[in-house]
Structures are given as C-alpha cells and as structure tokens.
Design a protein that fits this description.
Blueprint: H1 7-36, H2 45-72
Helix pairs in contact: 1-2
C-alpha cells in the first residue's frame, strides 16, 4: 500500500510537473528554431529573433528548475 501524499507534497509535485513541462516545451521550440534556420554566413536581426527568444525561454525555465531544486532538492 502506498502512503498518502500530503497537500504540500501534492503542491510541490504539481509545481515540478509544470516546470518540467514548460522546460520540455521551450526546448522543443528551440530545437525547431535551430532545425529550420538556413545555414549561411550572415543573418539579419529578424532572422535570429525567434531563435534568441526560444533560447531565452529555455534558459528562463532552467533557472526556474534550479530555484525549485534549491528549495526542495535537499529536503529529507
């Protein structure tokens, strides 16, 4: 029989799930932007905007995950 999960543990689990899904989604967006960027020597700002925005979103979500792990990763 599995032990009951407290409301706090359920909230923590839901937060982790949301962070993970956001991170996965942003990584997929970044992968798409990289995969569809034509290889050439020079790019305009407009051509790189979506790539940089997708990269910033991934970094932001990694930071959210890092903060989560700092808060809850060492609990026991």
């Amino acid at each position: 029989m599995t032990p009951a999960i407290s409301p706090e543990e359920e909230r923590i689990r839901a937060e982790l799930q949301n962070i993970f899904l956001d991170l996965l989604t942003s990584a997929q967006k970044l992968s798409y932007e990289l995969a569809t960027l034509d290889l050439k020597d020079d790019y305009s700002r407009d051509e790189l905007r979506d790539l940089f925005n997708a990269a910033k979103e991934v970094v932001s979500n990694v930071k959210r995950m890092h903060r989560f792990l700092e808060r809850y990763g060492r609990r026991r």
